[in-house]
Write a structure and sequence with these properties.
75 residues, alpha+beta, 4-stranded antiparallel sheet, 2 helices, 4 strands
């Protein structure tokens, strides 16, 4: 998975999954626009474990599905 993919390609290919993106390209407000998918899974913890194992210098973790309505997101 060394191809540079756009966010639309990532969302289409890895629907409702957690995705580890290496060297993300971002816009002015730091929204991910593209990057290299290093790992993906339905299990968020698995993706975080892979981030620790792979140790990318720059990365982002995204969820490509819809969050349940009762989910709180803390930044």
């Amino acid at each position: 998975m060394d191809d540079l993919l756009t966010i639309a390609q990532i969302e289409a290919q890895f629907s409702s999954e957690w995705v580890l993106i290496e060297d993300p390209q971002v816009n002015d407000v730091l929204e991910v626009q593209s990057g290299k998918v290093r790992w993906h899974s339905k299990d968020r913890e698995e993706v975080y474990r892979q981030a620790v194992t792979l140790r990318p210098k720059r990365f982002a973790v995204l969820y490509t599905g819809r969050m349940p309505e009762d989910t709180a997101i803390v930044l």
